[in-house]
Design brief:
heterodimer, A: 535 residues, 2 domains, B: 78 residues
């Protein structure tokens, strides 16, 4: 797809505008708290927008619209029932307790609540996941952007090709897109920290909304409105009769029968993601007050209610208009942009993809740097260094992870299983992570031994089930990740509760202010926590 | 092992098949209603913690009520 001059102008304004906005916040970074938690100065509206922008990546536009094309509106569950309930729980129960605890990371909380071993293992698991995931994110989206807008050999009189081709060979065009994103994210994230990430997220979310709404309006006009869309899709034949059902029958061959949606997604993966993912919750921990943490989380719920419409409806419009023309469902969204949008709006959509990509990458980079600095380096390698030392390390790690992500991204192309392995790794750790967090926050009887047992039991269950599925195909679905998440959470729960009940409870002073009811009842917890953190 | 797993799997699916899709929607509505009521069980002081001016529009329980009510619409319709 060729871009016109107006498209290029829009993309350039967006790109340099974001870099300037992000680096502006460097002036507010004087300490490691300013860098990692935005000095605890974030207002509710910025937190809400940033939560949504972080969650929605450029791949969501492609994959969710592709799944919408293939399976229908059932995919919207991921952003409705898979989002709002955990956000409400987070706003009322979890975030206030975590915010009051004054922690920087989830593993840090688990370390205070249980023990250092749990913190170390969780820090390592999440640190590895976030760092390894960067290369994959870079490659997948570079690939997608290049499909969308291939870089011509003649760009800047051939200089770009002459510089990049000797390094990356045939992949130089994809790597140009990767570098475009990496340079911007590296500059503003390493200089402005979380403030820069959050404030650029706000702008990026606005761009994502504007671009998505434009394509939906144009698409719906072509298809004859919502009723026209439904009629056209249902008229395609018996295979499409469930495309407007949010719940599919138990025996549905798709990956989304209703028990998988309810038990795997709504009860396990969604809460684990929204409550226990460092890249998500870090902006809430940087709230300027406990109320801002609650309000920001609920505001994210409101904004997020619109997301499925923005990313799944284009898939349905593509199905209604171009069924038979599109060979791969994942091409539904690019096909729609190619066929429907005029010059100028194509540039906006490209900016939308860039915005979605940059907001997610910057959050992952920032969180990975925070985890490695706080939970690995400060905890195990250099515990008593100056605050300036940790600030410098945080900045260095941010750049380091960006460079590593760029350097490792082409490797993904040669090992398809790496991508699958990283995604499976996330499914493995989500179940036990949720169990530990849930019982740590809500049940004062849960203790360190129970948490360790639950952590290992959950990991063993998910790895075991995954292996059995590979060998014996024990689930009916080809990719039963929702069921695996449910059973690993279940086993982790049984072991956490069982071992905790069989062993000594934690001393009251240790868990003071770290359990929801105790934090609610005790107004002096802040002092106790501040003292404990400074120790 | 495989036979046992198939037996258990079929039994679970057999039980879940008895629940109609309309019943699943009712369960979801109950779940949403529970979340809203959970907020209203919390003390007012806890809701307003950290707020300099406790106006009614800062009561996040109403925010949750609005957001959940909006989200229930597609679940009841589709």
């Amino acid at each position: 797809m060729a871009l016109s001059n107006i498209d290029l102008f829009i993309i350039a304004v967006y790109y340099f505008g974001v870099i300037i906005l992000g680096t502006y916040y460097t002036r507010y970074v004087k300490s490691s708290s300013d860098f990692f938690l935005a000095g605890k100065m974030l207002p509710w509206w910025a937190i809400g927008a940033s939560l949504v922008a972080t969650d929605i990546s450029a791949l969501d536009y492609i994959a969710a619209s592709g799944q919408g094309y293939k399976y229908g509106i059932v995919i919207m569950n991921f952003d409705w029932i898979g989002c709002l309930p955990p956000l409400v729980l987070a706003a009322f129960l979890f975030m206030p307790t975590l915010w009051r605890a004054g922690v920087y990371t989830i593993p840090e909380y688990l370390g205070l609540r249980y023990n250092k071993a749990v913190r170390g293992i969780q820090g390592l698991l999440w640190g590895l996941f976030l760092a390894c995931n960067l290369g994959i994110m870079f490659w997948a989206t570079g690939l997608m952007l290049n499909e969308f807008v291939p870089i011509p050999d003649t760009l800047l009189a051939g200089t770009v090709k002459a510089v990049l081709e000797p390094i990356w060979g045939d992949h130089w065009q994809i790597m140009f897109h990767v570098l475009l994103v990496a340079i911007a994210v590296g500059i503003y994230t390493s200089s402005g920290g979380l403030s820069a990430v959050v404030m650029t997220d706000v702008v990026q979310l606005v761009i994502m909304f504007v671009g998505s709404i434009a394509i939906i309006i144009i698409g719906l006009v072509h298809v004859g409105g919502l009723s026209g869309l439904e009629q056209r899709v249902l008229a395609l034949g018996p295979d499409f009769q469930n495309h407007f059902n949010l719940f599919l029958p138990v025996d549905s061959p798709s990956p989304y029968p209703w028990p998988a949606i309810i038990f795997g997604l709504a009860f396990v993966l969604a809460p684990a993601y929204w409550l226990g993912n460092q890249a998500i919750i870090q902006r809430t921990l940087g709230a300027q007050s406990e109320w801002d943490a609650k309000a920001g989380t609920l505001f994210a719920g409101l904004l997020h209610a619109l997301i499925p419409i923005m990313i799944a409806v284009p898939g349905l419009i593509g199905l209604a208009l171009y069924y038979g023309e599109i060979s791969n469902s994942d091409l539904a969204f690019p096909h729609l942009v190619h066929r429907l949008l005029p010059a100028g709006l194509t540039g906006v959509i490209f900016a939308v993809f860039l915005a979605a990509l940059m907001s997610t990458v910057s959050a992952v980079v920032d969180s990975a740097a925070t985890l490695w600095t706080r939970d690995i380096y400060k905890q195990f390698l250099a515990p008593h260094r100056s605050d300036h030392h940790y600030l410098t390390l945080g900045r260095f790690l941010t750049f380091f992870f960006v460079i590593c992500g760029v350097a490792t991204s082409p490797v993904v192309n040669y090992f398809e299983s790496i991508y699958q392995a990283i995604q499976n790794f996330l499914t493995f750790i989500q179940g036990p992570n949720l169990a530990l967090l849930l019982f740590g926050l809500l049940w004062k009887r849960a203790n360190g031994k129970g948490a360790l047992a639950g952590l290992f039991a959950g990991l063993a269950t998910s790895i075991g089930l995954f292996t059995l599925q590979r060998l014996y195909h024990i689930f009916r679905q080809d990719d039963p990740f929702l069921y695996i998440a449910w059973w690993s959470f279940f086993c982790s729960t049984v072991f956490t509760v069982g071992v905790s009940l069989l062993t000594k409870p934690e001393p009251a002073e240790k868990i003071r202010g770290l359990v929801f009811r105790l934090a609610l009842e005790d107004r002096e917890v802040q002092e106790a926590l501040a003292k404990r953190i400074n120790e | 092992m495989r036979t046992l797993w198939d037996f258990l799997g079929n039994a679970v699916i057999g039980v879940l098949s008895l629940i109609p899709l309309g019943g699943v929607k009712v369960l979801v509505a109950i779940w949403f209603a529970f979340l809203v009521s959970l907020g209203f069980l919390l003390p007012r002081s806890y809701i307003y913690e950290g707020v300099p001016d406790p106006h009614w529009w800062r009561d996040v329980r109403y925010w949750a009520l609005i957001v959940i009510a909006l989200e229930m619409i597609p679940y009841l319709y589709f």
